[in-house]
Predict the 3D structure of the following.
Amino acid sequence: MITPDILPILRCPTNGGQLTLADDPLIQRVNQAIADGTARDQLDERVTAPIEGGLVNSQGDRLYPIRGGIPTLIVDEAIGLTGPSEAE
């Protein structure tokens, strides 16, 4: 997982903004959306693999998944969030 000392140096690959760790309720909602088949990446493709964690961009509209303890900071693979309330 992401340690507190590395989090400040990770940046959103889209705009260079700060990333924050997704909380457990958000991870559960994203995994439920993945199970339901409604989670989409930035290419509008269905996300099929569950996540163990995530990094949320400063706008709260995109989550970079963490799988196997490794964050995926590839813009196209970021999971879209439905709105700002999803990131809170």
Notes: The CA atoms of residues 68 and 86 lie 23 Å apart. DSSP finds one helix and five strands in the chain. The two ends are 20 Å apart (CA to CA).
